[in-house]
Amino acid sequence: MIKKFKGLTFLIMLMMFALVAVGCSDSGGSKVDVGIVLPTKDEPRWVQDEQRFKDALKDSKYSTEILFSQGSSAKEKENVEALLNKGIKVLIITPHDGAAAASAVEAAKKEGVTVIAYDRLITDTDAVDYYVTFDSLAVGAAQAQYLVDNAKGSGVPLYLYAGAASDNNAFLFFEGAWKVLQPKIVDGTFKIANSSEAEKLKGSADLSRDQLGKIIGQVTTNWDANEAKNKAQTHLTAAGNDLKGDVAILAPNDGTARSIADVFASDSAIKSYFVTGQDAEKASVQYIIDGKQSMTVFKDVRTLVKDAMGMAVDILDGKTPETTGSYDNGSIEVKAKQTNVIVVDKDNVKSELIDSGYYEASEFTGLK
């Protein structure tokens, strides 16, 4: 009887072990084809991208998983490692910090994964295969041209702001803007109001990376609305009346543009201002309708997501993706697919953003 009991106990334990093994196998066996790592959930742009990525692959035979790094390069690397453990073949990644992301994508390359940098370039590594982007120089140039087109007279105070020094795009945006603004600074249309480094370099149309870095270091917002607000308050407090009146403001994106605009609007010595933006965020579209923000550079993310996912599917299908140019990331020339940008202001906000189906008219008030 004891022998039979022992035999039965052994059999039950064997069956339980088998069930556990099967369970472990199932939980670890969910393979993912395309891994996507986005920088933060704290900006509307990336939350919108998350849904668009999901929609882009919902009718595909391929699977995807999307993770957020929440502004941390360490978390970003953890996300990449988690996706590698799920067997991804393609990694689409928007780096929090272009240089710091190098080690994460190098780990992916070692596993034979194709790496696509999405919207922001990963720098100083040869482990990037492709780059899907809007033409960042064109974004900055469009912002600057808007300020030039709306400048009246001469000596218009020009307030300069930039994105994060850790983001390669911030350099490209500012470089594109500077090339348009610099001749108008030299001829006296604008006078620089808030950057001694820009004032020192105003004689040079082409700036080196180091020179751009010196200006950006003074006027960076770090893509943070509160930092932009504080910086704008500091600048206006220090500015004399000769640097107020009718002013022009180069703001790098919509989140910072709204904060900066609020500060300038609250200063009684500011008669009027033109302020730039980019991303066509809903809140900024409303600001444009209300006359609080002058323009935004509309980057149709639907097209960018479509380009990125189309590239990923081509790779999974064994095809060579189409590219339209390349970008030097400090280590190699990365093949790129570029998407055009559109300037949106009060005059065309309805045709570009509502009639195109990007947003619903019901999401805004005062739309004509």
Automatic annotation (TrEMBL):
Residues 1-23 form the signal peptide. Residues 34-319 form the Periplasmic binding protein domain. GO terms for cellular component: outer membrane-bounded periplasmic space. It is found in: Cell envelope. The keyword Transmembrane helix does not apply. Keywords: Signal. Coiled coil: none annotated. InterPro entries: Bact_Solute-Bind_Prot2, Peripla_BP_I, SBP_2_dom. SUPFAM superfamilies: Periplasmic binding protein-like I. Gene3D superfamilies: 3.40.50.2300. One of its GO terms (molecular function) is carbohydrate binding. PANTHER family: D-XYLOSE-BINDING PERIPLASMIC PROTEIN. This is Sugar ABC transporter substrate-binding protein. It comes from Psychrobacillus glaciei.
